[in-house]
From TrEMBL:
It comes from Pseudovirgaria hyperparasitica. This is biotin synthase. PANTHER family: BIOTIN SYNTHASE (PTHR22976), BIOTIN SYNTHASE, MITOCHONDRIAL (PTHR22976:SF2). Belongs to the radical SAM superfamily. Biotin synthase family. NCBIfam families: bioB.
Length: 410
């Protein structure tokens, strides 16, 4: 047997058989000769034509040293319409520059006041205008909420979110006092505290900040153009005003949208445009997919195509590189493989636990097992500090060499 380090040369041999003519065949024979080093000369063929990853807005995003909030709709459209696998690849590279690529933030959500809301959000089971079988309740006792937070922490969650079905907080002084006690109690457990209570004014935002609130969720839901088709009792600008009150108080802004409300791709682009052009990018961006609930106007809506979901996540990651992108409602009906594609596209947070507000949620044990299979891990609290989300690097290549290795590019 010749040395395995040898080279192969081609010879031609004619096989003969009585009465049968066989054409000459080429095969290789190994010879013990020194290997010739690869040439250091430049290739004679011209380079491959540029791909979407290396041209236009995607190229600028790949080489950016900090987030930007001067995006135009046309620029976001260019990103959104990139061939999907190239878009996911670019989003994954950008994600690694700003976040630990295998770390996923675990958040647990508790409905602390169910139903009875006066709004007409056409997707929501908690509206008093629709017959969904949901029974309205009063605000949960403080200790009951803190007991749920302790369970969430024991299962690995480091953000505890509390939602109350109200239009706004006007005239709810007692309720606000109790909610502030919940916030303080959650923070004393060493967890982040987030609430979603409807519209709030500047004074209420300050009270929540003083109680220790980490983040306030107030979704814009969809594009400005499609919004009137979904909700008529609260304007888009009222939502943006609440977001501004939250930001002015020094509370992290958590705002995103819902996919599958009868919108089109222009509305996905418009949603990202609204978020990416805020004075400061949201600290976290939840991307929900509609879970149709019987009795609501959207109760019979067909599920949105998955490629639109992952495309929107990737576009959000490209345009808001420092934000946490949360895979929120609707994850429970996604296969494990679909979830992984969302993580590869830039999602790096989930809701986990017993329930969302009114719909089912992936359980802690289920998520732990999935993380183990795919090499993911819960995000540590110190990885959530704001300075990690404004990471500046000298170049994309420098960031690539310093990025944390991972089995999944999350």
């Amino acid at each position: 047997m010749a040395s395995r380090h040898g080279l192969r040369s081609l010879q031609r041999v004619t096989f003969q058989h009585p009465g049968l003519i066989v054409a000459p065949r080429t095969f290789s024979t190994v010879h013990d000769v020194p290997a010739t080093p690869f040439s250091s000369k430049p290739p004679t063929e011209p380079p491959a034509p540029p791909t979407a990853e290396r041209t236009g807005q995607l190229a600028k995003a790949l080489n950016a040293i900090a987030p930007r909030n001067d995006w135009t709709k046309e620029e976001i459209q260019e990103v959104y319409e990139t061939p999907l696998m190239e878009l996911i690849s670019a989003a994954s590279q950008i994600h690694k520059r700003f976040h630990p690529p295998s770390a996923i933030q675990l958040c647990t959500l508790m409905n602390i006041k169910t139903g009875g809301c006066s709004e007409d959000c056409s997707y929501c089971a908690q509206s008093s205008r629709y017959s969904t079988g949901l029974k309205a309740t009063k605000l949960s006792p403080v200790e009951e909420v803190l007991a749920a937070a302790r369970i969430a922490k024991a299962n690995g969650s480091n953000r505890f979110c509390m939602g109350a079905a109200w239009r706004d907080m006007r005239g709810r002084k007692t309720n606000l006092k109790n909610i502030k006690a919940m916030v303080t109690g959650v923070r004393e457990l060493g967890m982040e505290a987030c609430v979603t209570l409807g519209m709030i004014d500047a004074a209420q935002a300050k009270e929540l900040k003083d109680a220790g609130l980490t983040a306030y969720n107030h979704n814009v839901d969809t594009s400005r153009e499609h919004y009137p088709s979904v909700i008529t009792t609260r304007s888009y600008d009222e939502r943006l005003a609440t977001i501004q009150h939250v930001a002015d108080a020094g509370i992290h802004v958590c705002t995103g949208g819902i996919l599958g409300l009868g919108e089109n791709k222009k509305d996905h682009i418009g949603l990202v445009y609204t978020l990416a052009t805020l004075p400061a990018h949201p600290e976290s961006v939840p991307i929900n997919t509609l879970v149709p609930i019987k009795g609501t106007p959207l109760g019979d809506t067909k599920p949105i195509a998955f490629d639109a979901v992952v495309r929107t996540i990737a576009t959000a990651r490209v345009c808001m590189p420092g934000s946490i992108v949360r895979l929120a409602a609707g994850r429970v009906v996604m296969s494990e493989e679909k979830q992984m594609l969302c993580f590869m596209a830039g999602a790096n947070a989930v809701f986990t636990g017993e329930k969302m507000l009114t719909t089912d949620c992936n359980g802690w044990d289920e998520d732990k097992a999935m993380f183990d299979r795919w090499g993911l891990r819960p995000m540590e609290s110190e990885e959530l500090k704001p300075e990690r989300k404004t990471l500046k690097v000298e170049s994309a290549s420098a960031a690539e060499t310093s990025a944390e290795p991972a089995s999944v590019a999350a």
